[in-house]
Amino acid sequence: xxxxxxxxxxxxxxxxxxxxxxxxxxxxxxxxxxxxxxxxxxxxxxxxxxxxxxxxxxxxxxxxxxxxxxx
Length: 71
What we know:
Elements (H helix, E strand, L loop, with lengths): L7 H17 L5 H17 L5 H4 L16
Helix pairs in contact: 1-2
């Protein structure tokens, strides 16, 4: 599955991350192991992706909502 989105070296590094997760969670049942691997893969992928919420400063709205701010 990862061979279509990650290079060989990235897959090797991801496997290291998964082994680290396995070592930290030795008693995980199969369902939690799979979701744990997915979480690790997302963390691995996110390490290089720019976070859009920090990419540019917040823009001011032209609306004056006064005390009726949107929650």
